[in-house]
């Protein structure tokens, strides 16, 4: 039997190996396409660098000119102009409840801190809360409500303070309400029917006794002065000169008894002074006593 060799050779097989085969040169169209591809890459890169550079230069110029610092304000101004152009602007101001508060005081309180008068300004940018705080800062105003009525009206509702007494402080007379809040300065000929609070630097100290006297209007009408003694207690001075020295504690009960006796004509008509300072003793001075 003939001997069979384990190696097989083939001339055709030698020609198929990658080692012995050269790559074909690129065609003309491929070379042109590659050139333009590289060119576009360079152009895009250069354009991006230039654009970033220009952006940084412009941003630096705007920052140096303060544009970014005022950007928020300019945006607000732009929106204000737009709302005004749309007809949303203040052309009417109304208010109710102001009997003692002057019209000009209300108008001054509604002034915008930066733009002055609010007429013809944007109603959208008007701040009711800020305006309310300024209106409530007026002496006579106890409470206020400020409302935007679209498209063009601002309405103010006012609740005023009720005078309860006069307070003498630093040589001047002031009108105060039942809470001891100063309403306004007055002259000696004004509000003479109200009691005069003296001998205290803080009129709010009288709020409790004013509340008690408010429950006894007939008695309160006869009181001329409320003198605060030693920052501890009160003396009631009647209009006919009768004086009641109230105790430091539980003076509300004492005022209750005084109100009953006074209504019966047993106090100011017969006495000059009544001392109730001690809890277990009462001293009095009869009228016309020597």
From TrEMBL:
Lineage: superkingdom: Bacteria
Region (Disordered): 1-27
Record key words, sorted: Cell cycle, Cell division, Cell inner membrane, Cell membrane, Membrane, Transmembrane, Transmembrane helix
Residue intervals passing through the bilayer: 43-69
Compartment list: Membrane
GO biological process, one term: cell septum assembly
UniProt-recorded name of the protein: Cell division protein FtsQ
Organism: Aquisalinus flavus
Lineage: Bacteria, Pseudomonadati, Pseudomonadota, Alphaproteobacteria, Parvularculales
Gene that specifies this protein: ftsQ
